[in-house]
Design goal:
By secondary structure, the chain is an alpha+beta fold. The chain folds into two domains: 14-167 and 223-312, BirA Bifunctional Protein, domain 2, CATH 3.30.930.10; 325-419, Rossmann fold (3-Layer(aba) Sandwich). 40% of the residues lie in helices and 21% in strands. The protein has helices at residues 14-33, 47-54, 59-64, 80-89, 92-95, 134-150, 168-181, 188-196, 207-213, 225-241, 285-288, 303-312, 332-347, 361-370, 381-386, 408-419, and strands at 37-38, 44-46, 66-68, 73-75, 99-108, 120-129, 156-161, 246-247, 259-266, 275-281, 296-302, 323-329, 352-354, 373-379, 388-393, 399-403. It has an eight-stranded mixed beta sheet. A five-stranded mixed beta sheet has the order 13-12-14-15-16, sandwiched between helices. A three-stranded antiparallel beta sheet has the order 2-4-3. Helix 1 (14-33) packs across helix 12. It binds histidyl-adenosine monophosphate (HAM). Histidyl-adenosine monophosphate (HAM) binds at residues 78-80, 109, 111, 116-118, 121, 123, 125, 127, 254-255, 275-280, 298-302, 304-305.
Length: 424
């Protein structure tokens, strides 16, 4: 019996790795342009961290966490909580009042696997901690949009405000009263949510629930002055930067730590998994985790969804896997010097492939094409006797003689003179 990977856990094969690396490189580049620094946090954390930050009655904490109950630890379902834990633990606010951080890595949620939804998935996560200005919200959202643009992706942006501890509780009371009048029309989940997490009813995907919430009270009409002002300013700032967006009063997000601005980057091209990235403000979170009263805002994008979308939308601007030189060593006499040449080339940064199995010229040239080699150098026994190999440009098919006098290290410099140095 073959052993297969666990359902929802996927290998990322060499075929798609260039796309992944391209996305990661663009993300690092853009995040660093905005002054974010990388942080790496552990995959395992105390379960309590996620319960206290994400919220006890969220789907993530209730049903989706990979927890080792006897050890009290959980595999991170997201990165924000861990980054805040690290921020507090290392007193990072003391060194710098505003911290801009990002991390890239795997997250774990026990969801039902589907296209674009996995149990181990990867996020690009960006956070700006210690600033409340609406211009920061706009800057962070614009950074996410810039990444999507540079990846060549077409998405839409929706924003909302979830208010704060002053304006949300009275809204919740009104919402529950409204939902209680319509319980019989709600799905089973939403009937339960009405009393555990009523805001979630607002973004239920069931037709019946969507019909009910159309006439539900809106938090946007009940925001306190500060939150209303903040939201207006975020919208204006986004307009100033030139970002298109839509206000979606039904967006609530699945994690409890959000306050004020929330946003999602959406696509209709990935079926049910519409969110390519999402985030928002979490002004009470750091204090709730035992830290100073600092606010923050961030987002995360799903790498699997970005990669899928690039494929789907034909955004193929990443480099294909390629080699600089394929050494076609054809006889016993040439194997050892060819291997020394390969070592010298690699030492000089040249991507070099070589086949020691003694396959035919035709088979090796086919392999050279398969690995996308720019050049192949043919070194057979005849060439060895003549001290002259054949250098073939694999793109143009042109061939030229290549002198084999001196040591393989000397051949190496001659070859680099012809094909050019390794691109850095
Ligand atoms: P989230 O909305 O739970 O937010 O996830 C953010 C993104 O991660 C989603 O938009 C999606 O692209 C991707 N994602 C989530 N779950 C899966 C899955 N099962 N399979 C594939 N991709 C998935 C957060 O995680 C917040 N921590 C974002 C944040 C950062 N808010 C503030 N700072």
């Amino acid at each position: 019996m073959k052993i297969q990977a666990i359902n929802g856990f996927k290998d990322i094969l060499p075929d798609s790795i260039n796309r992944w690396r391209y996305i990661e490189q663009r993300a690092r580049d853009i995040f660093e342009r905005f002054g974010l620094q990388e942080i790496r946090v552990p995959i395992l954390e105390k379960t309590e961290l996620f319960v206290r930050s994400i919220g006890e009655s969220t789907d993530v904490v209730e049903k989706e966490m990979y927890t080792f109950p006897d050890k009290g630890i959980t595999m991170r379902p997201e990165a924000t909580a861990s980054i805040m834990r690290a921020f507090i633990e290392h007193g990072m606010h003391v060194q710098q009042p505003v911290q801009r951080l990002y991390t890239i890595g795997p997250m774990f949620r026990h969801e039902r696997p589907q296209k674009g939804r996995l149990r181990q998935f990867h996020q690009l996560d960006a956070e700006i901690i210690g600033a409340t200005e609406p211009l920061i919200d706009a800057e962070l959202i614009a950074m996410g949009q810039m990444l999507l643009d540079e990846l060549g992706l077409r998405t839409s942006l929706e924003i909302n405000s979830l208010g704060c501890s002053v304006c949300r509780p009275p809204f919740k009371t009104q919402l529950v009263a409204f939902l209680e009048q319509h319980l019989s029309r709600l799905c089973n989940d939403c009937r339960r949510r009405t009393h555990t997490n009523p805001l979630r009813v607002l973004d239920c995907k069931q037709e019946a629930c969507r019909a009910v919430v159309q006439s539900a009270p809106s938090l946007l009409d009940m925001l306190c002055n500060e939150c209303d002002n903040h939201f207006q300013h975020v919208g204006q700032a986004l307009q100033h930067i030139g970002l298109d967006f839509r206000i979606n009063r039904f967006m609530v997000r699945g994690l409890d730590y959000y306050t004020r601005t929330t946003f999602e980057f959406l696509t209709a091209d990935l079926g049910a998994q519409a969110a390519v990235g999402a985030g928002g403000r979490y002004d009470g979170l750091i204090e709730q985790l035992g830290g100073p009263p600092l606010s923050g805002i961030g987002f995360a994008m799903g790498l699997e969804r970005l990669a899928l979308l690039m494929e789907q939308q034909g955004a193929q601007n990443h480099a294909e896997h390629s080699m600089d030189v394929f050494l076609v060593a054809l006889g016993d006499k040439t194997l050892n010097p060819s291997s020394r040449l390969a070592h010298a080339l690699r030492k000089n940064g040249i991507k070099t492939a070589i086949d020691y199995a003694g396959r035919s010229l035709k088979a090796q040239l086919k392999q050279a094409n398969r690995v996308n080699a720019r050049y192949s150098l043919i070194l057979g026994d005849d060439e060895w006797l003549r001290q002259e190999g054949i250098l073939r440009n694999m793109r143009t098919q042109e061939q030229q003689p290549f002198t084999l006098t001196g040591t393989p290290e000397e051949w190496c410099s001659r070859l680099i003179d012809i094909i050019g140095p390794a691109p850095r």
